[in-house]
Predict the 3D structure of the following.
Amino acid sequence: MTQAELNIMTSGHVDHGKSTLVWSLTGIFPDTHSEEIKRGITIKLGYADLLIRECPKCAAPNNFTAKEKCPACTSETKPARRISLLDAPGHETLMATVVAASSVVDGALFIVAANEECPQPQTMEHLMVLEAAGVKKIIVVQTKVDLVEKPQAAKNHKQIIDLLKGSAFEGSPIIPVSAINGTNLDVLLYAIQTLILTPVRDEAAQPLMYIARSFDINVPGTKPTKIGGGVLGGSIVRGILSEGDDIEILPGYLEVRKERETYKPIRTKITSLNAGGAAKQARPGGLVGVGTSLDPALTRADALVGNVIGRPGTLPPVVNSCNLEITPMKRQMAKFSEGFVENEPLVLGIGTATTVGFVLGKVKGNRKAVEVKLKKPVCAKAGDTFAILRRTNSRWHFYGTAKVV
Ligand code: ZN
């Protein structure tokens, strides 16, 4: 098995058929725990690898399938590209997780159900998060077309076009599918293959990996001599990690002493890698697992999510406060009061890390910037971008992005 070349997120409103779509493409229901245990490695966002195969006989756009035998002409198909599908939660309280996922994806399938009014409350925010994260390409998947008559599907199609207007994704393809019947999945795969291309990665750079999950893979009762080290799952954004590498993990683990909370950096060694199967090296693109010699108590239950991995001394600094130059999303501004009040809480996302920040006040000489104290430190350097959620009417909404200055 080869490593997946890229991450594609399935995004959209809750119950719009994301998990069913992933299931019909891959045979995996992305949020099943059994799959997670079988692999030992996955990420908190539902996750499934998909090997896209090409039929040598069928013509475009009907030449791609996930099946070994072409459903149309029964020819043997050939592997074309392996991708990782990330199923981002659609629920509003998990918007921070969507922000985190967006930092490691190369494209998105934006799911809209044909049998409901569009946009649903979360639809717009999901779209804006993708835009803010710099995701270049989306494909809109109009699901559940088997449940509606033609005029309803056409009306929904028009609503989607209107929704995309003025965004970075205006003019994106809209592909009607029935995940249950498998209708048009070949055309969807063709769109993925031709529109969401594998980006050129900087493999020569110092490696940087975002941790999206962390595990203790040992079953209760394992003998002390048989206990495996802590496992970290996530995506490498640049560089290559190899078995045997010494690595640093920042900001590290939480130590509580006399009610004082501090984060301690972690140094360890890579003892194994999983990149679509056991591997000596792991590269950017797709989701990978890193076995370490760490005490598994440190990695249990996603304790290290939001940390970054790199060679010792090469990672961005750990910060407890920073100055942020904020750019609100124009379409969201009407929802919020102007200006920030002192001590206003913000939810901040950078990489796979989410933290709460409190506004301390304005920054001298920069009208757009505020000083923010973080509840939990993150790795960030000047020029890095945070996604910001702000509270209004007792709900958290995506507000915009902020550059560290
Ligand atoms: Zn065929």
